[in-house]
Amino acid sequence: MKNYAVICEYNPFHFGHKYQIEQIKAHGGTVTAVMSGDFCQRGEAALACKYARAKMALAGGADLVLELPFPYSAAGAEKFAFGGVDIISRLGFIDAISFGSECGDAELIKRTAKNVISAEFATALAENLKSGREKPYGAVYFETYNALFGDDGVFAGSNNILGVAYASEIIKNGLPLEISTVKRTGEGYNGGGEGFASATSVRNAIYGGGAEAAKALLPVGSYNILKEEEEKGRVCLPEKFFPVFASFLRTHKAEEICRFAENALSLAARLIKAGNEAHDMEELYALACTKKYSPAHVRRALLFAYFGVTDEMLAARPAYTVLLAASREGRELLAKARKCASIPIITKPADYEKYGEEVKHAFELAQKAAAVRALATKKAGSVGEIMRMGPYVER
After folding, report:
1. Residues 197 and 297 in one domain
2. Which of 44, 152, 212, 384 has a Cα-to-Cα distance from 309 of 20 to 30 A?
3. Cα gap 38→324, rounded to integer Å
4. What is the pLDDT of residues 263-315, one digit of tens each?
5. End of a domain among 260, 291, 313?
6. Angle at which helices 50-59 and 220-231 pack, to 10 degrees?
7. Residues 356 and 226 in one domain
8. CA 116 to CA 127: how far, in whole Å?
9. Backbone phi, then psi, for 141, in 5-degree steps?
10. What are phi and psi of 392, to 5 degrees?
């Protein structure tokens, strides 16, 4: 039996995620999910807390759910992949990484990954970034690749892009992990297309009409857990972030925040101006965005400035992971990890100081993110409540 790992957000866990796990299980594999914590890859706060989303994953067939902590969870594709693959490689029992992709072609993903980590590509990209300063990084990246290796359509899909990032980490570090992909069935990440509803579509339905509005778009387990979170007032309401982030921007200068990850002086200045003029989060982001700075880039830049996340912090390996949920099979996988993992696996949040200073500093940053996310809920959660949360373990 192969042990597969999936890097995911499950924001929330939907039918597409269930389909991927079913495809892995059809080959007799176990599934360990390394899942985003309180903020996700496009700089957005998670709809439900990480423990609730992990419980959804178990209901959908996952065996073990561990955390991809902030700030890696909120980073762009390269650092998101770096954090997730690093945790997986250090668990000591994972045989393969599986991910959804639009192309469904693992060999094409691997071939593309080898190209993007080549010296030829690195040199050309560096030169093109100098001459294309007003273009988004992604646009220059894709144009450079297509000019060197041809446009085979890989970078047209958001899941393909993440797959290439995962494969690049595995190949350049010589990790003994197989690369496996499941062809994505359903809408694109932004809601376009047909089939399984995307996470974006599901979230939009929930923000517009509550959990009930998304009932038909979710597996029963996900819906029931989400409904319970909603009744407890713990579903995130993004507009409630406005006083938090606007007050930060109105009390800082561009020169103070441009040193943080994803920021440049020009973007920092736009964020400060937007924070001074906007009346809500939607307007704040709209005022800061340009052709060069996408909405996701702007959200990450603001998030990293607020929490003081630097490029150096994102370049360091994750200091720890957290147990979020485990099935009966998952408990056996966890026991294997306890014996062979080279990364601390925190079970009780209150015990984090036992793992040394590096873990302490990293964990406290992630807890700050959790505490701020909890403010943007109907019933603002307290820090004490967050620290008392623990994994869901099937007995």
Report:
1. no
2. 384
3. 12
4. 999 999 999 999 999 999 999 999 999 999 999 999 999 999 999 999 999 99
5. 313
6. 160
7. yes
8. 15
9. -60, -50
10. -95, 115
